[in-house]
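To: structure desk
From: M.T.
Subject: fold request, one chain
Message: Could you run this one when you get a chance? Sequence is below, nothing fancy, just the single chain.
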Amino acid sequence: MSALHRTMRRAGTVLAATAAITLAGSTMASAHHCYKVEWQEAAHRAHSKGNSAWMPLSDLGATFLIGPEYAQQCGYVADDAVAQWMAAKGVTQEPLIHTRATIGSGSYYKKGVAPKPISYLEDDDFGMLTMAIVDGMATCAPDWEMPME
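Reply: Done. Structure tokens follow.
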């Protein structure tokens, strides 16, 4: 396979992945775009373990991009992608994404109290994260294909 063909295929995969994440996230009340920053360490740890509406960004990537077939074998790829993104953005805690509601002005704001500091994932963030996962999956599982549902 030529380098140009690989590059074109990778670009198509990234575009498809971005669309898939956007569609998947829209079914979660668009909560994937925003996340709370400056968690107390104990609260961040507790929510990161699961059993709450908050999902670590790397788990979201493993669920929607890597998929259940490869999650056990290649789940670390999402962890690595998020770690690279965090380093590039200067983020010190892995973002926890609320999977059931928007938090900027949705259910988090209903008592009239301004929400704690919120940050937003932009298209460039999704592109960076997706490309890192695509690159990592090429090494971990060369037969992997981006989920299109």
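Reply (cont.): Residues 36 and 118 are 5 Å apart (CA to CA). Let me know if you need anything else for the meeting.
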